[in-house]
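Archive entry. Fields below.
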Amino acid sequence: MRDEKPYKPQFEGGGISASHSSEHTSGEIDFDSLYLSSYRGLCAYATRYVSIDEAEEIVQDTMLWLWDNWDTIVPEKSVKALLFRIVHNKAVNRIKHNAVLSRVHQQMERNLSQHFESPNFYLDKELLQMLDEALQRLPENLREVFVLSRVEQLSYKDIADRLGITVKAVDNRLARTMKILRKELKDYLPIILALLGAGEIPQ
Amino acid sequence: MNNQKEMNEAKLVAFIDGSLSPEEMAEVEHWYDASDENRKTLEQLYFVLQLHDRCNAVKDVNPERALAALKQKIAQRSAAKRRRSFMTLGRRVMRYAAIVLLLAGVAGLGAYIYYDKNQYCEIVADNSQNKTIVLPDQSTVTLKADSKISFPAKFTEERVVYLDGEALFDVAKRKGAEFVVKAKGAQICVKGTKFNFKAYSACPKIEATLIEGAVDFRTNGHKVAIKPNQKVVYNAESRRMNIVEVDARLDIFGERYFDMEKLGYVINSLEHIYDCKISFADNRIEDIRFTGTVNRNNSLEHTLNIITLTTGTEYKRYGDAVVISK
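PREDICTED_STRUCTURE:
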């Protein structure tokens, strides 16, 4: 069924990770391929804390550091983890004011931190491709609302005005989308199921 | 609890985004605590949205272009490093060369720097020392402290340089080609000339003093032609512009050069520079010729010593008044 619809990636580059790194295949990795395979993921990670412009600046700084210290770093598997660590510290330092999160936000962050703080979350192409495809398979009227809400960041009211529908309808469409996405992704997200324990997603 | 089905997922999305009212937030929090199932639902939503939002944030990112930009930065930096080490070497050479040249009675020496083609150069004089550089068209620039100039390593038809700070320009004449200095929205256009341009980004005042030749000072559509020994003072904030008559060399270097001038004339200048009263014990002294440089930064005593020793005269000070006698 998936093959009937041509796959049109929503995100240019087809996900956060540009390509799989060759770092596991040999003891030597070259700077360029490491850069290209982790740049997008590092930027995505930094946008948890700062704007994309600042994120790119931070990642570029970090890469310059890597360039300068290339000889002193043993190029091995941990380089990516190190880069994520550095970007994290730089990004957190940039935050002017911490958004006050609710207790539940903090709890969710804690429960999910092993994902959000893991380079794999940002570099795993497969996971992102699943999301992409799930979005592409959404009925047009649902995807429209989702994009206006998440990408254009319009309020439910503005979306309703824009599409000439009621706020209630926006609510319903978004709710349906979220249900679909959770259902679609559950097969591809063993990590979240493992974390939360097996169980059916309530329909 | 059994209210999990009543919770609209759009509301959960709004909760995750922090756009709910305090009452609604409390409601969702209560719902989240009610069962593991609810907790799982919200956390899955949170996960999916995080995944989407992070991915969406970087959708326009171009790693190839970013890598190219980084490589360029690295290349420019190592070029700058090469220039710096050349400057240090240049300074050592210059020290000896300066002695030789001073003996020959020639003052001033430029440092030649060689640049790679197609590159943009930036030179900073960050300490108290002035830096003299030669531009690709053989024009020389003396950068004052805390000043920065950037220019292409190779000029095309147009010669444009950017200045932040103060610099003295001695522009080489080139047929038909203008030389333009840009700074803080103002610019000076010249053909071949010698002028000083002061435009620190931290200060609203821009000053340009012309020593020789002719320049156009342009800003915000205004265009003013400046003649030698004129100084244009422009305030970028109030947009007021003034043209003042000055002794350009005195203004820029704080020094005045006299070439076989009568002492009567020299003393006149000194009175202005030092704001004092100088007279002669004998009128005939006025006609004695003096050749040399007087620097405002030296004390009056020092200057008077130079003048009297080289002209075979002597002086006596009475407070603000000075009398020169033979």
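CURATOR_NOTE: The CA atoms of residues 138 and 177 of chain A lie 7 Å apart.
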